[in-house]
Amino acid sequence: MGCSSSLPDRSTGRLGGLNNSESGGVADAKNLRVKLVLLGDSGVGKSCIVLRFVRGQFDPTSKVTIGASFLSQTIALQDSTTIKFEIWDTAGQERYAALAPLYYRGAAVAVIVYDITSPETFNKAQYWVKELQKHGSPDIVMALVGWH
């Protein structure tokens, strides 16, 4: 597992379908609040991805997430819109799987992470896609991320 040393360009881009409060996004003029959840097996890199996005850093001594952790990140787009991401980084251990619906309920975005060297984690990613299709918001945006 590793993280890129480059930072994302946060001055451009558009997010569609995230203004609806029913799907985890709340609009106030040009200020948006978006609930985002990360799902995937333990050790696939979920925390690494979110720490890179929020703090711009990689912690090679990152510990396993217990339960879930919450972080937020606000970005500004070129049109003066601000988007505050409320990010739930869920634990990947099987014993916490029953808690996942508490975190993805009402989420506008789900990032499903798997390890590209592990077919088992890809199978679990497919499970999360099906779970979100059945129990997530109807217009949830899903991203599948292969990590190593």
From TrEMBL:
GO MF annotation: an example: GTP binding
Pfam assignment, any one: Ras
Roc domain residues: 27-148
SMART domains: RAB, RAS, RHO
Keyword Glycoprotein set for record: no
Entry keyword Nucleotide-binding: yes
Gene3D superfamilies: P-loop containing nucleotide triphosphate hydrolases (3.40.50.300)
PROSITE patterns from the UniProt entry: RAB, RAS, ROC
Coiled coil: none
Keywords associated with the record: Nucleotide-binding, Repeat
Alphabetized NCBIfam families for the sequence: small_GTP (TIGR00231)
Protein name: Roc domain-containing protein
Annotated source species: Populus trichocarpa (Western balsam poplar)
